[in-house]
Write a structure and sequence with these properties.
Chain lengths: 342, 342
Amino acid sequence: MQLDERKYLILQAIIDDYILTAMPVGSRTISRKSGVGYSPATIRNEMSDLEELGYLDQPHTSAGRVPSNKAYRLYVDHLMKTVKLTSDERERMQDHLVAKSKQVEGVIRSAAGVLSDATKYTSVIVAPKLSTLRIKHVQLVPVADRLALMVIVTNAGIVKDAVISVPEGMTADELYAVSRTLTEKLADKPLEAVRQAFAELLRNAEYNRKLLGETLQVIEKRLEAGGDASDVIVGGPANMLEYPEYSDVSKARNFLAVLESKDTLRKLLSRDGSMEISIRIGPENQLPALNDCSIVTASYRVGDHSSGTLGIIGPTRMNYNRVISVLEFMGRALSDVLSEYR
Amino acid sequence: MQLDERKYLILQAIIDDYILTAMPVGSRTISRKSGVGYSPATIRNEMSDLEELGYLDQPHTSAGRVPSNKAYRLYVDHLMKTVKLTSDERERMQDHLVAKSKQVEGVIRSAAGVLSDATKYTSVIVAPKLSTLRIKHVQLVPVADRLALMVIVTNAGIVKDAVISVPEGMTADELYAVSRTLTEKLADKPLEAVRQAFAELLRNAEYNRKLLGETLQVIEKRLEAGGDASDVIVGGPANMLEYPEYSDVSKARNFLAVLESKDTLRKLLSRDGSMEISIRIGPENQLPALNDCSIVTASYRVGDHSSGTLGIIGPTRMNYNRVISVLEFMGRALSDVLSEYR
DNA sequence: TGTTAGCACTCAACAGCATCGAGTGCTAAC
DNA sequence: GTTAGCACTCGATGCTGTTGAGTGCTAACA
């Protein structure tokens, strides 16, 4: 059996209705809808077919139908008609985004807030992979006797800083001199090229080898591992509680627990390098606790490279239309803010 | 009617039991407890008196009794016997705390985590008031053409940094020179004395007045307002969901909403300068949404001054004993980490 | 006079049962 | 191919009776 025009129409009507109400949809409801000119009985026949084909589920015999994950998949791939954001909305989002500091973490934090506000779902943003950034400036600031703060400024802005230990008795002036050398050698290099640059630096080192070595190590560590917890940022964690899917406290707890594990989140949001929207529905995201959630992700760029991920986690019956529009817009906006960086 | 020995004993037994079970306590339950040698009937008479005196509430006629807020007040003021943490626990907490970077925010973040883990409640920590800190080092790092990152290192560690705008065409070397001047003049001054120091600097300014002026402004702004959102940090927000008091989703939502408003939290945790533990029970905290929560707070020092607040928010029937012990210990530990700062 | 046993009473929680109604599947007529 | 009609299903709702934890009161006891 194949899906004909009418089946598509009815399936779409069911999904649209279910996204709105979260209640099983009956044949009468669909029949009454404008654009569907059939009686409940006809709809019922079609629904029965759709159930057999795996697009609908029936919670119990005398209830309406509920879209299956397969239906959502079909919906996002073929049925969905995209809606535009109003220019008003766009402006508001843009405004909230740029009115923040030039620090990468700050920008991302505000972006996560904007995302969750605009969608009423939970948003997650992964900070730019350091490997895609270019160094503009490196500076060591003395902090204590044997400690210095390393600030790395990249083309995306200020990257979170790290404290490194330095040799005893190093003065502020000496640290500054080292900083100058570092900046000189590393400026405009992608972080990936840091290794070679450092090797060279170490060969004809005027300054303490150990210091340079440690600095290199720190940069490298951040480069590969993807850094510490703070580079996965969650917006509107409590939004999910608004939906009847999570009126069960223990479910809500599980959900919040997932949000607290930054590693899990990073894995959940990982994606290939393409700039396209990716949608994972229900079990497709491989995490039992999120079995009735969908995750929609997009990429943002810094400079020329695809660099980080922004995403929305919501119930499988989420408003995919709107979420996609918002993510696309915010992906571009975020790319702009982090790239065109003045 | 006055409270005699026996009434104290019974009241304490009731509170202890209720804290454990969150279920109305009956006379038989108390009677069976070791240390109470009376029959249920006697207990009932006493309970009746205690209810009349306002220490107990009865949800309905045939239910047991529940401690009133007045009872909790009496309990924490007089009845409670303090328990010690095991040295094992202390060590574990200490370990988790110190194994972190030297940045104030990082230390506080990890402290909040330790607190919420140790108590199973939600923890909140307010970052040190800048006015109590002493400057050790100020440095401007070039970020873009007309922007610089100002890093302030204090006796507590690295204070969150701010981006300020600088005059066009300022080189890194010039910025460094300004930084040196700033550091020289401000070193070891409390942030409060910054104003005078700056006035002096401005009078015989070798470097650009505008830059110095703006830098001063930034420092001052952070000094008075108490800074931005990131200096109130919440640990274990989802812990509250474990308690039957919050099995109602809408209650849980309200609670989480409070945690998202950093301003409200800062007000909730405000306290006089003393180092003593403060306990606010139920309505005492003036916030309807937290009417059946208690808030226990303690202070920590940086150097010689009382400087910031750490607190626990939990149900009114929380384990005050343990919470107080944990807060006292962590207050000291946090003071040490931030003060003895090597 | 303080303590306790006994007893009638109260009331939330729970299980059982009938009712209701939204929704279905099937059949027959259009 | 479409639709009206109808019997059927089953969760939700509400009513009822039962149970049991817990109380207050009274009277007996030490």
